[in-house]
Write a structure and sequence with these properties.
Helix content: 25-40%
Distance between the termini: 12 Å
Structural class: alpha/beta
Number of strands: 13
Number of helices: 13
Strand content: 15-25%
Order of helices and strands: EHEHEHEHEHEHEHEHEHEHEHEEHH
Largest sheet: 7 strands, parallel
């Protein structure tokens, strides 16, 4: 029987474009919404997908204008502080924060007052690289009742200097890769764009690679383009049988930078911002994940590629370590010849990576955390 309980979700991914953070928030709320009588979402910026979700589900939604950053940032921070102080004695309220700013604000309040509400942190990012900042932030992070991390790699990054063993935590990330729709209205559009591109270059037998994700520097897409262009130009034109397709969203400046970087290269095609489906991945021979270093906390699109396409060429991303055992998986480094790596992975068998999307035990545990 549902109790008279409220959920306050404080979302602060800091961008209006739809990414893994917003997608995860929607996914979690959808799974646990029946546990609450009322749900309020306070957003650091106006995320249109979260706004649409709230409108379609009659949830309360409030957002701040990110374009006026130096006004919205402190305004949002103060708003979160006031929320926590106001409800400090209400044991029927659960606060669900996502990443840094909201966690810091609630953490400060938790250090200053004796609270009765339940606080759950869903940390999407790895720990700050600076050890001092990481140590201070963790002091607030671990004031929460429970922490949710997208991967073991993300969780381990918060065990700063191995001084802190994380006990009240839960790994919840791979489940979301199971939620892609089988098809969308964009599938036919994508198919037509691929055929038009092949007709334009008069090549219908190329190895088709797909990058699907945010168009930003930290995702490694611009480094990937540079590697691809440099390595493919070493091959004679008649032997250039690899095409790179890019599907993603980003701010205006990044999209302009992308179009400029691929201009003049006939083997690269930007498909635009696409609603990804399971069928979408079947149009390509393999997928690529160019996120560099340790900054990727999960690599959601990489998991989707493995599941719905079967072949993944990825940078040395620590969050994906261990998944190579399923096959269809190949790492590449910044000094590797990307063209040769593509040829190599194209010859191997597809992955048998299958995440059980109806893992009832995981969903039960998730609901127990919020209950």
């Amino acid at each position: 029987m549902k109790k008279s309980r409220k959920l306050i979700c404080i979302e602060d991914t800091g961008r209006a474009i739809y990414g893994g953070g917003q997608r995860t928030t929607i996914y979690v709320i959808e799974k646990i919404k029946n546990l609450f009588n009322k749900i309020y979402i306070v957003d650091r910026c106006n995320s249109y997908k979260i706004y649409d979700y709230c409108r379609n589900n009659n949830l309360n939604y409030e957002a701040f204008n990110l374009s006026k950053y130096f006004v919205s940032f402190p305004k949002f921070f103060i708003k979160v502080l006031l929320i926590a102080i106001k409800i400090k004695d209400n044991k029927n309220i659960v606060i669900y924060t996502t990443t840094r700013l909201s966690t810091l604000a609630i953490g400060i309040v938790s250090k200053l007052i004796s609270r009765r509400y339940k606080w759950i942190v869903h940390e999407h990012m790895i720990a700050p690289s600076n050890k001092t900042i990481s140590y201070i932030y963790c002091k607030f992070l671990f004031s929460s009742d429970y922490q949710i991390f997208p991967s073991i790699h993300c969780k381990n990054s918060y065990e700063y200097n191995k001084l802190k063993e994380i006990k009240n935590s839960y790994i919840f990330g791979e489940e979301i890769s199971s939620e892609l729709p089988k098809n969308t209205d964009d599938d036919l559009i994508v198919r037509k764009k691929i055929l038009a591109f092949e007709k334009k270059i008069n090549r219908f037998d190329t190895i088709k690679i797909i990058y699907a994700g945010r168009i930003s520097d930290e995702k490694g897409i611009f480094k990937l383009i540079n590697m691809f262009v440099n390595d493919i130009n070493r091959v004679s034109k008649k032997d250039q049988n690899v095409t790179l397709f890019i599907a993603g969203f980003g701010n205006k400046k990044k999209i302009e930078k992308l179009k400029k970087s691929i201009k003049g290269n006939p083997m690269i095609c930007y498909l635009g911002s696409i609603n990804i489906s399971q069928k979408f991945y079947s149009y390509f021979d393999l997928g690529i994940n160019p996120s560099w270093g340790v900054n990727e906390s999960l690599g959601l699109s990489a998991l989707e590629i493995l599941k719905y396409n079967g072949k993944l060429l990825t940078s040395e991303c620590k969050s994906l370590k261990g998944i190579e055992k399923y096959g269809g998986f190949l790492f590449f480094g910044p000094k590797d010849n990307i063209y040769k790596k593509i040829k190599e992975i194209n010859l191997i068998n597809k992955s048998d990576y299958k995440y059980i999307n109806n893992n009832s035990n995981n969903f039960k545990k998730l609901k127990k955390i919020f209950y």
